[in-house]
Amino acid sequence: MLSDIEAASTPEALRQILDRVCQNLGFSGFNFIDAGSIIRDDPFWIGTAGERWENEYISNDFAPDDPVIRKALTQNLPFYWSDVKLFKRPGPRDKAAQTMDAANDHGFKNGFVIPHHFRDDIGRSYTTCTCFFWKSRLNGFYKSLSVARHDLHLIMMYWTARASELSHEQARGKAYPVGILSPREGIHLSDRERDVLLWTARGKTTEDIAEIIKISPTTVNSYIKNAIIKLDATNRTHAVTKAIYLGVIQP
Known about the structure:
Layout: H1 2-7, H2 11-25, E1 29-34, E2 45-47, H3 51-59, H4 67-73, E3 79-80, H5 95-105, E4 110-119, E5 125-134, H6 138-171, H7 191-201, H8 206-213, H9 217-230, H10 236-245
Helix pairs in contact: 2-6, 7-9, 7-10, 8-9
């Protein structure tokens, strides 16, 4: 399998290899997504989980709120869907809960998720998330992974590396790889700028933050304004969202 991955010359060839892995292990399909691109309108992914599921996922713009992807952004080791904890809030179910409800409606009983964080040869950072979907009885899910969990993790390390190599080959001297993976943006915030965004993410007002870190409200707003500019955001909420998804802060 690893030799086939190294010899793959197109994204379609990689898709077919991973689809074969799914069939051999009993999964109904997979979705591989460039997690660093989910804040854009057209996040890149390759998948075989089914056209109906993919259309619903895309049309509802689930990616930015997908709790599986959010966990993958700050997790190094593989995990199950059932490991993802949803925050319970009063009122209508939020987008994260709606995402998991929709997956359940499509017959997915659990999933095995493999996050992968790496740097290319010039130091650009990437994060990818691969989810393997399971529709059959759950005892088969755990039995299959008790045997193949580590093999699947190793396969995805090679698979993602080959995807990155193909991106470089297709880029042909452009500023960043195209077609498969895009680098996470190189955002460099100061310690204070990260602090104010972190406290903002935790629901604190300007006055609250000023009291917590012992600076004036005017200075807090100045740090927030600088962070908004560096993150190319439109307001503080947008800046917090981008900072979380780019891994700049971890609330």
